[in-house]
Amino acid sequence: MDYGTLRGIFTVLIFVLFIIIVLWAYHKNRKSSFDEVANSIFDDDKNNNVNNDKQETNNNV
Questions:
Q1: How far apart are CA 24 and CA 17, in angstroms?
Q2: What mean pLDDT do residues 15-43 have?
Q3: What is the mean pLDDT of residues 17-28?
Q4: Is the pLDDT of residue 6 over 60?
Q5: What is residue 55's DSSP assignment?
Q6: What are the Cα distances from residue 42, in Å, to 30, 33, 48?
Q7: pTM of this prediction?
Q8: CB–CB of 24/30 below 8 Å?
Q9: Cα atoms found within 13 Å of the Cα of residue 30, Cβ hemisphere only
Q10: How far apart (Å, rounded) are the C-alpha atoms in residues 23 and 21?
Q11: Using CA atoms, how far apart are residues 14 and 6, in angstroms rounded to an integer?
Q12: DSSP string, 19-60
């Protein structure tokens, strides 16, 4: 095998891996999981607002 053949095989393997990742990411079963993760930032924001209502004091002064 020469260098060009190895590069061709490597390119095909990378392309197949890319196709597998794209199919995995856009599969119907992953949508609910991705939606949950995408909306988790808003859930954290709601929890932080409850704790931010209290006035902070600086006891080090």
A1: 11
A2: 90
A3: 93
A4: yes
A5: P
A6: 20, 15, 10
A7: 0.54
A8: yes
A9: 7
A10: 5
A11: 12
A12: HHHHHHHT-HHHHHHHHHHHHHHHHHHHHHHHHHTSPP--TT
CA dihedral 4, 10, 16, 17 (to 10 degrees): -160
CB neighbours of residue 4 within 10 Å: 8
How many Å apart are CA 49 and CA 54, to the nearest integer? 10
Average pLDDT, the chain: 83
d(CA 43, CA 35): 12
CA distance 25 to 21: 6
Interval 16-41 mean pLDDT: 90
State the sign of the Cα–Cα–Cα–Cα dihedral 2, 6, 9, 12: negative
